[in-house]
Design goal:
The protein is an alpha/beta fold and 424 residues long. Helices cover 43% and strands 14% of the residues. The strands form four sheets. The protein has a five-stranded mixed β-sheet. Strands 10-11-13-12 form a four-stranded antiparallel β-sheet, with helices on one face. Strands 2-3 form a two-stranded parallel sheet.
Length: 424
């Protein structure tokens, strides 16, 4: 093991150290490498360290035809490995505002990732060995199979997401009961594909179940908060599970994955964050976590995109940011209500072929087809005969109301009904 990795590992109490994968234990951010040496020489009068080009005035020697499309030419050079410092500070401030249960002393500073997908892969790299099991609800984002199954080599083990009109927390408890030793699970709320987020009661129950499990099992809970904040019913928990889990138990490590992608409507900019929390967090442990994450990022993508980070930072600091975000939220909420209305109005008729699974948040909702229908066939029929696109997964169709005008939603569901009718 590299001495710098060994030095980092000594910062962790035994229970946290043993949560790391073998690769995670070996990760470190080189403190004598190019990035570190360049940072130390940043303000030197003669700086011949980093591999970028400067003009005679020490400004980035960029192409004018490129620079005119960027926030400014100062975003051309490489960003720090952990991300732009001010962006990390601002994101943490907003995280604390949005999640009153969070305690600053129990969390690391957010590290910038190249979107949420990268964050999922980082979490898998840090905490899962090949062949180890990760628990997750059976309604999950399909890319987990590639990120965690194929790339990390983990075994995805699912449990039922729903029971009736709500979450099946008993299924979560039963799945945890099958675990021996270290437990790793990922929870995505609001959920993709279902569009469901837990009620306050369900959220508290999950925290209680996970905390009790951590009494006897070292546990990593990854909170995929890609769609955080996009909830449309009063009884829904507004905070991330990470808020309470981050200081729930010394044996429980909470990992928060979030970003500008969905909640700030910045899909292609690929700016995400990874934050870690534990009841016994110290500045030294937080620093060691950040250095391991930085080492993983350095070895995978070098660092996240600098212009994208600067664009997101400027948006977050804009005096119109909250107003703009509320306007977009209102648009999505109107579309959500349009879906609710059309399903309620046509409930009896639609039940001949499909019914919605629970939904109350996010960008999506799903309908479950009767067993006699094939989701992929219906999807193809919708494109061919009705000029309508949805996503087929298992025996469900996922409808992204986020990208459908409220006025088009009745026609969208009528087309689905007609495609089902034509397939019988």
């Amino acid at each position: 093991m590299h001495p710098e990795a060994d030095q980092l590992n000594q910062q962790f109490p035994s229970v946290l150290f043993h949560l790391f994968s073998e690769k995670g234990k070996h990760l470190f951010s080189p403190q004598k490498g190019i990035l570190k040496q360049a940072a130390e020489a940043k303000n030197s009068r003669l700086n011949a360290t980093i591999g970028i080009a400067l003009d005679d005035n020490k400004e980035p020697l960029g192409l004018p035809s490129l620079i005119k499309w960027l926030p400014d030419k100062l975003s051309l050079p490489y960003a720090p490995g952990t991300g732009v410092a001010e962006l990390r500070d601002v994101w943490q401030e907003k995280m604390l505002e949005k999640n009153p249960s969070l305690q600053l002393e129990n969390i690391s500073k957010p590290v910038v990732t190249s979107g949420l997908s990268h964050g999922v892969f980082l979490a898998g790299t840090l905490f899962l060995n090949e062949g180890e099991k990760i628990l997750l609800p059976d309604k999950f984002w399909g890319n987990y199979k590639m990120l965690l199954g194929v790339n990390v080599g983990a075994e995805l083990s699912t449990f039922p997401t729903f029971k009736g009109n709500g979450l099946d927390t008993e299924a979560l408890q039963n799945a945890l009961a099958t675990q021996s030793g270290k437990t790793v699970l990922i929870l995505n709320f609001p959920n993709n594909p279902s569009g469901y987020s837990p009620t306050k009661e369900e959220a508290d129950e999950m925290v209680e179940i996970l905390t009790a499990h951590a009494e006897t099992h070292p546990t990593v809970v990854v909170c995929d908060d890609a769609y955080w904040g996009l909830v449309y019913e009063d009884e829904i928990e507004r905070e991330s599970l990470f808020g309470k889990l981050s200081h729930a138990h010394e044996n429980l490590l909470a990992v928060k994955l979030d970003g500008a992608t969905k909640e700030d409507f910045a899909w292609g900019l690929r700016v995400g964050f990874i934050t870690l929390g534990n009841k016994n967090m110290t500045p030294e442990i937080a620093d060691a976590f950040e250095k391991k994450v930085a080492g993983a990022i350095r070895s995978q993508i070098s660092m996240a995109c600098h212009p994208s980070q600067m664009a997101v930072l400027r948006s977050l600091k804009s005096p119109t940011y909250e107003v703009e975000k509320k306007a977009n939220f209102d648009t999505l909420e109107t579309r959500y209500q349009a879906v609710r209305n059309v399903l309620e109005k046509n409930k009896d008729r639609y039940s001949k072929y499909f019914a919605p699974i629970p939904f109350n948040a996010g960008y999506f909702m799903c309908i479950e087809l009767i067993p006699e229908l094939n989701a992929e066939q219906i999807r193809q029929n919708l494109i061919r005969d009705f000029d309508t696109g949805v996503i087929a997964t298992d025996n469900m169709l996922r409808v992204a109301f986020s990208c459908a005008a409220a006025s088009d939603i009745p026609e969208l569901f009528e087309n689905i009904y007609a495609a089902c009718e034509a397939a019988r």
